[in-house]
UniProtKB/TrEMBL annotation:
InterPro entries: DNA-bd_dom_put_sf (IPR009061), HTH_17 (IPR041657). The lineage of its organism: Bacteria, Pseudomonadati, Pseudomonadota, Alphaproteobacteria, Sphingomonadales. This is Helix-turn-helix domain-containing protein. Residues 23-69 form the Helix-turn-helix domain. It comes from uncultured Sphingopyxis sp. It comes from the Bacteria.
Length: 80
């Protein structure tokens, strides 16, 4: 039950971010992409994930970059 509450909270935060700031936290970005936070972190470390920015000490993902990365991953997967 706690997991659903956390998921609903992340979903609500992502929806608010979509309406307001286009920049999402790593947690919001992972939820938006249906990835675990750890997977997104691993992609970032390997340089294979979506473009990210550092705002001060915070990592942020622009929602357009997430969409572009997601489309690119889908296209690359179709070739395999």
């Amino acid at each position: 039950m706690t997991d659903m509450s956390d998921e609903e909270d992340a979903n609500a935060r992502a929806a608010r971010a979509r309406q307001g700031s286009p920049f999402l936290s790593p947690e919001q970005a992972a939820f938006y992409l249906s990835l675990s936070l750890r997977t997104l972190q691993e992609y970032r470390t390997a340089g294979t994930g979506p473009v990210y920015r550092r705002h001060s000490r915070h990592i942020r993902y622009h929602i357009d970059d997430l969409d572009a990365w997601s489309r690119g991953v889908g296209e690359a997967g179709d070739d395999a």
